[in-house]
Structures are given as structure tokens and as C-alpha cells.
Amino acid sequence: MKYQLIVCGGTFDLLHKGHKKFIKDVLSFSDKVLLGITSNSYISQFKTSDIEDFEIRKNDVMQYLDSINAKARVEIVSINSAYEPLLETTFKPQVIGVTSQTQKTARELNKKRKELGLPELEIVVIEMEKAEDGDLISSTRIRNGEINRDGKLYVRKSWLENSLKLPQSLRSTLQKPLGKLLSSVPQGLNPDKTVTIGDITTKSFNENDLNHFISVVDFAVHRKKKFEKLSDLGFTENIETITAENPAGSITSQLFAVVQKAFSTKNRKIILVKGEEDLSVLAVLLLAPLDFIVFYGQPDEGLVEVRVTEESKKMAYDLVSKFAS
Fold first, then answer.
1. Where in the chain is the domain with CATH 3.40.50.620?
2. Which of 226, 264, 271, 290 has its Cβ near the most Cβ atoms within 10 Å?
């Protein structure tokens, strides 16, 4: 090894392929690694509360180190300020591992170390891991529902270009609830993270004054036209409405594009499907950020609640991957 001790740091939220590459690359430079993970209190100063708890992030890093037999070579510390603990004399590293995004912080750190009479650290820039689309893997993109932790896109490029057809082999699977069955509209929901699919479901939510974020409707019930206008579904205000062509048994590229557009802003939207909205639940699950909740009706059984998690997004991905293009 070139060095005895290298230091590095990060948030390590939703530990992903990019984090793992960074850790492995840092390990290749030195016998020992001092790895700092930002504390909850430090994160609260500049990031949202969505970031995982420190103990979860630390445990995930430790489990990964254990999986590559590197646990004994790494000391994990909590970071409570930008330069802690690298302005103390207790630690005597020779080098700091950074990415192109944190290189500036390392230079500022060296400036402060020089002012304190401490030796400057050599800076090693680690190349960041890219996702399937060529953009960087990040916890933000994972939380936004764009990619999984390996950098794989939840919506393939081809799905945005060609219509997909439901194969006969999947019909019985999709007739079953994709989530939890409910008998009524639940209370205490965050309307900004709630999506309804289906006219009756949407009407029920409007009757409960939930003002949910996205509604997907087609003015039909059991494939028979029942409603004529949005006010029939309980909409009393002027809400942006976008339309998509989507024949029965299909998920069109236009539907994907419209759902993607609906999630691109924070304004409440209605997606009016010309055709059938039944399979739109899969498009919504694939494009929704994590922690959203999707509701749709299950014929003769009630309301289905599907929470948008990494697991439910994978489920939707696996199902849509079996559609014919």
C-alpha cells in the first residue's frame, strides 16, 4: 500500500454501488482508513429529514465492509462539522480521498490545516460511479425513484419510445391486488405524496377532501363510460389536466411520458387517459419517488394501497419487463 492512513467521509445515505466503489477505491490506497459519516445533527443543518438515521447508515457501511473482509482496516467516526476530526492533532493521516464534488472541501481543509501548523494532506480524487444512463448514481436519484441502488433505470429507454402490450400470461397476476386491501379511504395521509388511480377511487378521495397530488382517470367504470366531466368526480377547482392515449391492455410511451411530467413539478395534476387507465398503476410505481402511496380500486373487494418502496418499484419493473413491445 502507498499510505498508512487515508481519510474520507460522506453521508452514505441509501448505500449504493457508487458508495461501494468509493470505499473499495479508498481501501486500495492505504493499509488503514478513517471513514467519517455525517451525524444526524450535522445533516439537519443543510439536508432534508429524508436522510436515513446515522445508525442505519453506519450499519450498512459496516455490513458492506464485512462482506469484503475489510472491517478490521476501517475505523468509522461521526462527523459533526465540515472538517472534523481533521483539524485535530490526534489523527495523523497522509492523504484524503474525495470525489470531484468534494475536492473543493479538501482544498479548504488543507488551508485550515496549514493555518494551524498541521501538514497538508495529499488529495486523491476517486472517480464516481455512473448509472445505466451515464449520469452519476446518487442517493437523491434513488429517492426520486429514477434508479435503483445499482444504478439501473426503473424505466427503460425503449419503454419511452414504444408501446407495451400486456401478455396473456400476466393477466391473472395483475387481477390480484398489488398491495394492501382496505375497506375505506385511510386518514392521516400526506396529500403531496398521494396518487389515486381510477374514477371511483379518485371520487372517494375528493369526497374526503384529501386534495391528493395526482389523479389518473378515464371517465369509465368496469370499462363502461360513466362520467362526462371532472366535476362529476368531485373536482371543484381548476387543476392542470394532461391527457394520454392508452388503449386497453397497454402501457403506451405517451402514458409513461405524461406520468413522468406529472411528477416533475409539485403542482397538483389530473391525468386523463383516453382509453383505459387500469395498467397505469405500473407506470406510476415505476416513476414515483420513494415514500409516495398509490391507491386504486380492486373490483368487488375494496381499495388497494401500494406504498412506493424499492421493493414495490422492483416488482413493477419485473412485471413490465415481461410485457411485449
1. 3-143
2. 271
Nearest CA-CA partner of 255 in 242, 264, 267: 242
Global pTM reads 0.93
DSSP code for 236: -
Report mean pLDDT in 10-residue bins for the chain, 325 residues.
88 98 96 93 80 97 98 92 68 89 92 90 96 97 98 96 96 96 95 97 96 97 93 94 97 97 95 97 98 95 97 98 95
**Looking at beta carbons, which pairs linking 294-299 to residues 24 or more positions away fall under 8 Å?**
294/179, 294/195, 294/196, 294/197, 295/185, 295/194, 295/195, 295/196, 295/197, 295/201, 295/205, 296/196, 296/197, 296/198, 296/201, 297/197, 297/198, 297/200, 297/201, 298/177, 298/181, 299/222
- Determine the longest span between alpha carbons in the chain, in angstroms: 79
Cell numbers standing for residue 61: 457501511
Sign of CA dihedral 167, 169, 175, 176: negative
Instruction: State the fold for domain 3-143.
Output: Rossmann fold (3.40.50)
DSSP letter for each residue of 154-194: SS-GGGGTS-EE--HHHHHHHTS-SSEEESSPPSS--GGGE
C-alpha cell at 90: 490526534
